[in-house]
């Protein structure tokens, strides 16, 4: 008896969230490895165009789970609709990207079904007969292989960048698409969401920067940011920061890199005094070259750095600025 | 407003972690601190109390050492504390932790329950949402602002890439709080003194045992991450390192 993997892709504000392709790639890899069937679902109101887009990939079937009550997104509606659907289809494994929206409803959905979710996974392994999911713990310092000790359905969410969206296989022909009308009773939805908006006018678009000099807590005081700014200027790059720096108001929110801020993939990412917490790493691990300076040799940032300096950034950055200026002046 | 803040004690950020013998957890001989997002959740609860009156109750589960988190919270201005005290609480998954909390507070009538958006040790970001479902309450996650209104509350949800969304919700509700929502206060000396006399109720595992059952997931193995990147460590004096970096920037990275 073959099992089914269900990948639930995400659509928001009229667009398919591109991270869904990463989850689909994971689903395809798992289906191939386990010999299971891969199906997908998209949830919302009038989602036929998204379903058709997904149907172009190598999947057995696409379900468009629809109801006017699924737009805008609310955890009550999404949980109710998916619970109904999953109970009827009984997939073994339900995969989703670890987005803010998924985090908002998957634990509710799993609990409503008496099940559990293994969240923010970076991969999976077959350990004999057992399927285990790998995730980071203690802000990236350690890794854990986690298994389900419960019945199916098993809920798994994958971290941004854990799989390559460009590795999704296209189908040889369009997969069948089936519309499922979700029945959501009156009174189920309790939240009233308003329009999504961007807070401040974005003065800088970090996603376009080729070189980024980024500061974390290791910068210690607001006035020290001037040092990082000088380095950024010398290199012709942009200044950025991890969340705590922006929370403190030392740099504006549009300079934030991480799960809540920008996701960047510059040619060079220079991390000064950044420990490498997961919420920051997901925003910059795609950088072509990562250079990290941190006085803690155990800092998780060193796991992903191409060049690493274990040392005091206040000792290293001033001569670095001078050397960069010399090099640029033709020295 | 009667607010419950769920707090967790986690290993300190820069604590060197060692694996236990079976490789399934860390050795507990490290220094601990409050989970940072939970500190923001507490601060938010205290500010709501200052604005609207009411009571702030803090709850945690864990061994005796976890009491420190509650003492600090009481010193900052929380009114009462609940400690589910047992080593066994450490290994519970989010589902069971939430069930234990729900059992411990079954005779209370909170308007709001806050948790931090996730913990710095597990990082699942689930307990608050699971608790909401168990209680049958509405919830919202990654919250950056809370305003009381006639029909309940209006919260500001943080989304990715600098986007936000306001959501109107009825009470009672569960909210998971994002760090940076406010600025944390320090406990005053008076606060620390007053904390000693504030009620701290201990709840034994036996009291909530019937509410929980076996974990639905299991950590098979905890380990130092396998390195996939070939990191080059550059050494020497600050001046030497600066020169080496520029050499890399010019010849390897090609940005100079």
Can you walk through the features of this model?
Chain A has 331 residues and is of the alpha/beta class. Chain A has two domains: 4-181, Rossmann fold, CATH 3.40.50; 206-328, Rossmann fold (3-Layer(aba) Sandwich), CATH 3.40.50.1220. Chain A has nine helices and 17 strands. In chain A, the strands form three sheets. Chain A has a nine-stranded mixed β-sheet, sandwiched between helices. In chain A, strand 8 and strand 9 (142-148) form a beta hairpin. The radius of gyration of chain A is 22 Å and the shape is elongated. With 256 residues, chain B is an alpha/beta fold. Chain B has two domains: 2-211, HUPs (Rossmann fold), CATH 3.40.50; 227-256, no CATH class. Chain B has seven helices and 13 strands. In chain B, strands 9-8-7-10-6-1-4-5-11 form a nine-stranded mixed β-sheet, with helices on both faces. A two-stranded antiparallel ribbon of chain B has the order 2-3. In chain B, strand 8 and strand 9 form a beta hairpin. In chain B, helix 2 (67-76) packs across helix 5. Chain B is globular and about 65 Å long. The relative contact order of chain B is 0.17. The mean pLDDT of chain B is 96. Classes of the chains: A alpha/beta (331), B alpha/beta (256). Chains A and B meet through helix 3, helix 4, strand 7, strand 8 and strand 9 of A and helix 3, helix 4, strand 7, strand 9 and strand 12 of B. Strand 9 (142-148) of chain A pairs antiparallel with strand 12 (217-223) of chain B.
């Amino acid at each position: 008896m073959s099992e089914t993997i269900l990948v639930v892709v995400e659509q928001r504000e009229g667009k398919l969230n591109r991270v869904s392709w990463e989850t689909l790639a994971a689903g395809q890899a798992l289906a191939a490895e386990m010999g299971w069937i891969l199906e997908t679902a998209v949830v919302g109101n009038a989602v036929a165009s998204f379903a058709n887009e997904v149907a172009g990939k190598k999947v057995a079937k696409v379900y468009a789970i629809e109801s006017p009550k699924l737009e805008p997104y609310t955890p009550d509606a999404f949980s109710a609709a998916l619970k109904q659907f999953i109970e009827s289809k009984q997939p073994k494994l339900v995969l989703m990207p670890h987005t803010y929206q998924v985090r908002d409803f998957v634990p509710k959905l799993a609990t409503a079904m008496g099940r559990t979710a293994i969240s923010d996974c970076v991969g999976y392994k077959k350990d004999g007969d057992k399927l285990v999911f790998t995730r980071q713990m203690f802000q990236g310092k350690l890794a854990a292989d986690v298994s389900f000790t419960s019945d199916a359905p098993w809920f798994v969410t994958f971290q941004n960048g854990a799989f390559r969206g460009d590795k999704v296989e296209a189908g040889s022909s369009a997969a069948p698409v089936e519309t499922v009308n979700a029945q959501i009773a009156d009174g189920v939805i309790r939240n009233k969401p308003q329009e999504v908006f961007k807070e401040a006018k974005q003065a800088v678009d970090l996603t376009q920067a080729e070189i980024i000099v980024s500061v974390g807590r290791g910068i210690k005081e607001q006035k020290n940011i001037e040092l990082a700014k000088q380095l950024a200027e010398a290199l012709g790059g942009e200044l950025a920061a991890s969340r705590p720096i922006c929370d403190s108001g030392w740099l504006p929110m549009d300079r934030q890199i991480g799960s809540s801020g920008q996701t960047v993939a510059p040619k060079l990412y220079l991390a000064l005094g950044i420990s490498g917490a997961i919420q920051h790493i997901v925003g910059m691990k795609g950088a072509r070259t990562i250079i990290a300076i941190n006085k803690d040799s155990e800092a998780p940032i060193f796991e992903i750095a191409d060049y690493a300096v274990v040392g005091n950034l206040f000792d290293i950055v001033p001569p670095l600025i001078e050397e960069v200026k010399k090099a640029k002046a033709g020295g | 407003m009667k607010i419950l803040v769920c707090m967790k004690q986690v290993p300190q950020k820069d604590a060197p972690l060692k694996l236990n013998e079976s490789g399934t957890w860390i050795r507990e001989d490290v220094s601990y601190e409050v989970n940072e997002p939970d500190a923001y959740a507490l601060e938010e609860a205290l500010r709501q109390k200052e604005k609207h009156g009411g009571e702030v109750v803090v709850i945690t589960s864990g061994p005796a050492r976890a009491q420190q988190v509650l003492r600090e919270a009481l010193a900052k201005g929380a009114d009462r504390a609940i400690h589910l005290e047992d080593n066994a609480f450490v290994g519970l998954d989010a589902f069971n932790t939430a069930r234990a909390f729900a059992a411990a507070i079954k005779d209370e009538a909170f308007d709001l329950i806050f948790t931090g958006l996730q913990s710095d040790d597990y990082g699942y970001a689930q307990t608050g949402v699971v608790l909401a479902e168990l209680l049958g309450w509405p919830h919202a996650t990654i919250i950056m602002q809370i305003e009381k209104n006639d029909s309940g509350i209006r919260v500001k949800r943080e989304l990715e890439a600098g986007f936000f969304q306001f959501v109107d919700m009825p009470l009672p509700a569960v909210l998971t709080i994002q760090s940076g929502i406010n600025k944390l206060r320090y406990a005053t000396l008076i606060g620390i003194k007053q904390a000693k006399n504030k009620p701290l109720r201990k709840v034994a595992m036996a009291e909530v045992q019937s509410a929980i059952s076996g974990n639905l997931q299991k950590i098979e193995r905890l380990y130092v991450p396998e390195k996939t990147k070939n990191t080059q460590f550059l050494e020497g004096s600050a001046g030497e390192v600066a020169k080496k970096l520029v050499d890399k920037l010019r010849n390897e990275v090609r940005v100079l």
